[in-house]
Design brief:
single chain, alpha/beta, Aminoglycoside 3'-phosphotransferase, Chain: A, domain 2, Rossmann fold, six-stranded antiparallel sheet, 18 helices, 15 strands, 47% helix
Length: 542
Amino acid sequence: MQDGLPPLIQALTDPACHDHPVEAVRLIETHISYVLLTGTYAYKIKKTLDLGFLDFSTLAKRRQACLDEVRLNRRLAPEIYLGVVALTGSPTSPRIDGAGEVIEYAVKMRQFPPDATLDLLDAQGLLEARHMEAIAATLGQFHLAGCQRAEADSPWGSAEAVWQPVEQNFLQIAPRLDDPADSCQRAEVDSPWGSAEAVWQPVEQNFLQIAPRLDDPADSQRLDTLRRWSETEHARVAPRMAQRKRDGFVRECHGDLHLGNLAWVDDRLLVFDCIEFNPELRWIDIVSEVAFCFMDLIHRQHRDWAWLLLNRWLEKTGDHGGLALLRYYAVYRALVRAKVAFIRASQGGDKRDDAAHEGRAYLQLAEELTRLPALHLDITHGLSGSGKTTVTHTLMQSAAAIRLRSDVERKRLAGLDALARSGSGVAAGLYSADATRHLYQHLADLADGILQAGWPVIVDATFTARWQRDLFRQLADARGVDFRILDFALAEATLRERIRQRALQGGDASEADLAVLQHQLETQEPLAPDERDSVVALDNTA
């Protein structure tokens, strides 16, 4: 038995207490629960406590929390969450699913390797970019599923042009879902969730619960500064929060999406352990959800992967409007993790100092996240096959920027998946002159909104016409940000070979073939001398 554990938990570490063969029991303790790993199954037991943001103080409340945990987590991990089991007997001699009076409840799960969580993979140096791609795809699909159209009388304002292609994602994905329980349900307009007032409550709770646990004046001063920033930023973005709720972006999400609640099992992503104990922490704006993982990656010194995750999620959802709230929610999420760390530190134990150090690191990160980056607007210039997408894939990570891909947004405007084939001919259909003008104006509108939200932008498109480049130069001038043309000049033979190889490989949003390339070669307007001051030549012959 381990010292300091409640008698029930100590007893459950005995294999004989279980109703299936168990050789040994491994115990994992968090700040709110105990998890018993038996080899085949895992049992999660809530601690008897009331922390304000959660209340497990009675047996009835713990039972309901267990039921909620199973229901909610089955949306993303149905094969893991098996049900709720009763513990009977006595604290010193308990039985799982035995006869007699119930003394406690546990969530029964199918056990997966405990070292498969992404935080532990990261600690071993095994985390990879493909894991970010999987998170973005899974999260984007989950957030899109189950969304309904906002009411006809909703005041769209300037959001109308942005909403239409986003809505097409919802309409096309929803019919493909087998089970409504798999979806991320939208909050009703008259529900209490997602209003500016509701959003502020957990933010304020962070400050109230962290402050008494700080013993360093520098930490207290930093927390005070963060509170003032949060109050000011909240007041600034409150109207956007209200609009987002009306437009259907407040949904029943996971709520606790950091790397410790993600695992890589059987070569695919497993998302588990969502928030069950407090509905206001899971009925949130979807951008608050992605902000948690975004922040966690930055905390772990994976800033490039944070931007990869964010960009891929945006390509999946089209929710560029949420970027206006990303900074606010990223700071909030850093303070959530700071709170958890300081709670662990206050509970004592041999890792108290480590927990306090982690809490301070999150405070520092939250402060860093409040700072606005230097803004810039970059556009690419190059024919199909010149490597624009490959290079900007790296640039969006290293430059901490949002990338807009014309190939993706063109399909979104048409209500198509990014990888769908439109069947359009050269300079026809989705690629007609009118459609192209509409696309570039749409890209400019998106870029403008992202710049106003305080994030740098890279636009990945051919930009073969002078008017297209001028449109974005004028936008940069209007916003007072640096403007660059990233020029991709490649030999025609190389372009043709790349397009042939891309067609063989498949899996890309671009529909450009050799006929399209020929049309571009015949109609392009080369960069003019007065554009050269903005050009950055990129060698992409490799």
